[in-house]
Structure formats: C-alpha cells, structure tokens
Amino acid sequence: MIAEMPARRVRHLRLTAPDEALVRRGALLLEDALRTASLPGGGDGRLIVVRSLALGTIDSRGSSAAVALALEQSWRRLAASAVHAEDPAAPQQPAVYFRDWAEALTLLAVWLASGRDTGAWFWPLAVPGWRPGVPAGDAFRLVLAAALDGSVPAAAMLGLVAALLDRGALSPLLAALRPGDGPALLAALGLTGAERLGSGRATDFGLPPFTPAWTSILTRWIQAWGAQDARSAWLAALALAADTPARLLDPEFVVRAERLAALVAQSEPAPSEAQTPAAMPCETALCAVPAAEREAATEDRSPQPPAAGVQPAHAVARAPQPDAARGEFARPRPAGPVQIDAEQPAGHGQPAQARAFETTSWPAPGASYTRFAGLALALPLLSHLGIAGAIEAAPKLADLNLPGRILTALARGARIPADDPIRAAFTRPGRLRAPCTYAAPAAWRSGLTEAGPLAVRGMIGRPDVRVLCEANGRLALALWHGEMPQAVAAAPDDGTVSGAPLPRRSDAAVLVGAWQVAARRWLAAYADVTLGGLIRRPGYVALTRTHLDVFFALRDADIRVRRAGLDLDPGWLPWYGRVVLFHYVNTPRDADRM
C-alpha cells in the first residue's frame, strides 16, 4: 500500500549546545527521526496536537534511530492521555485530539458562532493561520481559507457547511464572504474548467426537495447576493451535493446549481433573521494575512520551562493529505511533511512510502467494531468497475444514488443487521423521479460478459422499456425507454438477438442487479474471493463527515485482496463523499506472535 507519511510539524524547537555545529546536528537527527518514528494517532485519521514534548539529551554521535525511539516513547505517553478538544479540561492538557482535520475547522467555526472562548493553546496549532482575537468576520474567513487550503477542499467544505447547518451556525460564515470569493469556492468543489461550465444544452434538471434549514439558508443568501453572483451558485451546489455527493460528477453540475440559484432568487423572500448579510463587517481578504503575521499568531505565549536538550514546543500529527487544486484562498505550504522551524522549513519533501502495516492502537479511538468491515472494500471494488464514469455519463444516476443502492443491496445480501456500525457509513438510496437511460462501462463487455451474442429484451408490463443483456438475462448492459440511445447502438458487439421479455422490475432494480453480478464476476476473475467472503471481515470503523477509516487486524491481512488492489487507500471519492483510508494494525494477539 502506497501512502504519504502523515504530516508532522514542530512549530518551535529549542536546542542547547556548546557550539552551532552541534545544534545543526541535533536538528538534522530530529528531522530524520520525525520521518521514521512510528507515532500513534497520525495513522488513524485523527489530528493530535501536543503542546510540548521533551526528549532530553541527544547524543550528537548517535543515530536518528535512537532519537526516533525517544520520540516514540515520549509521544506515546502524551497521545495516550490526549483528550478531545470539546473536553472542558482540554485547555489545561498537554495533548488534544480531533477526530480529523475537518472536525477542527468545524468546531472552531461553531465556537466562533456561539461566542465561546477560542483562546486555547491548541487552536493555532490545529487550524493553520488562526489568530485569537481577530474580528468575527475575519475569523470565519480564516477558517474557510484553511478548509480550502487542505488536502481535499471539497470534503472539508461539505463537512464544514453541513455541520454548521445542523447547529444553526452557517449564516455567520456566509456573512464573511465577499463578492469575489465565488470563483475560488466553486473551484474548490472541482467545478472549474470548460468541461465543468456546462455545454449550454437545455438540459431538464430535476430539483430535489430540501430540508427547512437548507430552504431558509438558500432563500436568504441567494436573494441577498443575487442569482448572478458565483457565491449563489456555490451555495446551491453545496445544497445539491450535501446529501448526494455523487452529483459533483455531473459534467453540467454548475448549470444545475445556477438554475437552482435562479429559481431561489425568484421565490418569496425569506423571513427576517437576526443575522443579515450586512450585519457582520469583514475587513480581511481571505488568506490576505501576511505570512509573518500568521506565524506570529501561532507562537506560544505561555511560560516555557527551561530548555533541556531538544524540546519541540509544539508538534502536530496529521493524517495523510494528497495534493489538491487550490484557488485564491490558498496559502504557501512547506515543501515537505516535516517542518522543524516555522520560518525556515528544514529538509526536502519526503517521497511516498510503502505502508503495509501500522502501529495504531487497537481498537482505534472512537471506532466501532463490526463483523462486516469488509463492506468498505466494496468502495474500491466499485471504482474498479467504473462507477465514477457511469455517473458522469448518466448524471441521473447520482439522483438515484446508485452507489448507495448498490452498497445497500450488498449489505442485505450479506445479511448485515440494520444497526451494524458499517451501515451508518453509507447514505440511504435516493428516489429516481424520471425514466433512466443507462449504459454499463464499456470494459464490462470485454472482461465480465459471457461468450455469445447479446439480447435486446423487453419487460412484462412496461412496453416502452428495453434492456440489452446477455442471452440468459443475467447481466444487463444497458437500459432505455423508447428509441435505442446512440451510445448503445454504436457500441461494438458480436451480434444482437431478440429475447423473451424480462419479469417486471424497476429501472433501479435492473441497474443494481447488474452491478451486483459484475462485482461477483470481477472478484472471481481478479481476486479469487466471493462477495460474501470479501464483506464478512471483522474490524473497526471510524466515521466522520469527511472520512471513513477502516481498521483490520494484522493477522487478517489477505494477499488476494492486496493483490487485487482492494485495500489500497482510495482517498477522496466524490461519488461517495468521503476520504476512505484502510489500516492494518497490531492487535494484542498479533503482538504476542512477534
């Protein structure tokens, strides 16, 4: 498994030595140790911030491995006692954790909206650029800027906005936006470039119903900004993607968001609210804070103990974060994942490393046990089968929530109880309000279909429906209403025959059944494992708004799954709406065998 090492940053480093050469030698040893040390927490998705970490005396003649060992021991003691940021005792603790980086942004925004004190030592370490005491409008802009400057801005933004909406604290964030912010906000969702700006076709988009909270927010702010403002399209896009992230794959998603903004702008005005667009002045441009001022804001002003050897005063462990496109909100970032000094990054970027196993504690903090953790492995399986391309080609599949329907069907087939923790990781299926035209990914025809001609078959009780499938009817490759679509007619085949009508089924049932058949055949061909065997794997799952972390015991590692690439970290999956990471960890039983 290939993944980047979790980012580890030391805000302030204190070294004492008789001469400068020894100080540089100590810094180099520590830098190397940070790259190789196994620090719990960074690999399980959590963000851990440590106020100070004393390492004692470093032998300049020693190796970085010895420093790494001392670092691991000190870190484990602090990480084991880390409390969640919402714990009342957190400001007095030496180590604090967040479930993921996006939660740090969300909690800070919620605290700002509710007027809670945000002067605790851990906030400037958890949220880059944060400075206590800034005006409210500037504070929200700093939070949003940090979200857009993260590894997966779309995930962070969706999670941030959804959490603030749930807590009734979204309006202060929206009030901090400026008219020119819209393009960068859209770009953070991946809605940029000619292919994303719509073809201008008169597409018939269906508009889903919204919750009262979303309806109120959309009406108030779109009517305040105007339908032509890019912020309105951005807010409409968030509303459309909040419950169905797969809509982000629609090539004309911007057109759909703009149409929604236009309809909202023409609707009845929203009732008055205490927080209006003009109620929160904002004088700071997003990410326009000078670099020196940002760094000064992260300094620890609390009394420091006397220096003894090497003492990184602040250390941050972050989950792996791949690169992402950034707009005007972005801030400069260090060249590599290890930063010794806030002003002068030390060393170069660390190349990606093979990550087969981790030493994350077992069970993982905040995770829930399930006998069916292998259902999460169906996410990369669907990627292999081409789910993203299928949704891009037929955007109505996003409204149908085809991924959610497939995973729900797999869960039912494996007889996973409705209250099992793994079921909470997948959204409920959507409702298709119009006939669906569908064509399976082209690769299915060459690798997953049985030999012989294909058949075009009707459906009992639905005279307008046609299904292109294998002669035996087991695998459906296309479905349409009325005239055969050009994409289906142009596809190469070994001949097509007419077949007997199929039993009456809904469009969704035909599609979901086809993907289940394709999943079984792909596993048989490339992994030599059954669908049930893949799903019925014990483990722990940790779920947040932006991440799904799945933990398997080291003893349960399966070479067949590894060889097929099913337990490689998928990362950000737009059609699923979360960052997905897999971990193999030592359990007490594993440790006894080593």
Unreliable spans are 1-6, 193-203, 272-360
Question: Could you say how many structural domains there are in total?
Answer: 3
Largest sheet, strands/sense/barrel: 6 strands, mixed
Alpha-beta classification: alpha+beta
Q: In what order do the strands lie side by side in the largest sheet? A: 5-6-4-8-2-9
What is Rg?
A: 26 Å
The helix count comes to 22
Number of strands: 20
Shape: globular
Q: What is the typical, i.e. mean, pLDDT?
A: 76
Strand content: 5-15%
The end-to-end span amounts to: 21 Å
Helix content: 25-40%
Strands, helices and their partners?
Layout: E1 2-3, E2 8-10, E3 13-15, H1 20-36, E4 47-50, H2 64-80, E5 83-84, E6 95-98, H3 101-114, H4 123-126, H5 136-148, H6 153-166, H7 170-175, H8 182-188, H9 212-225, H10 230-242, H11 253-265, H12 291-297, E7 310-312, E8 315-317, E9 338-339, E10 353-354, E11 368-370, H13 378-385, H14 387-393, H15 396-400, H16 402-413, E12 438-439, H17 443-447, E13 454-459, E14 465-470, E15 476-481, H18 486-489, E16 496-502, H19 507-526, H20 531-535, E17 539-543, E18 547-553, H21 559-563, E19 571-573, E20 578-585, H22 588-593
Parallel strand pairs: 2-9, 5-6, 13-16, 18-20
Antiparallel strand pairs: 1-10, 2-8, 3-7, 4-6, 4-8, 11-17, 12-15, 13-14, 14-15, 17-18, 19-20
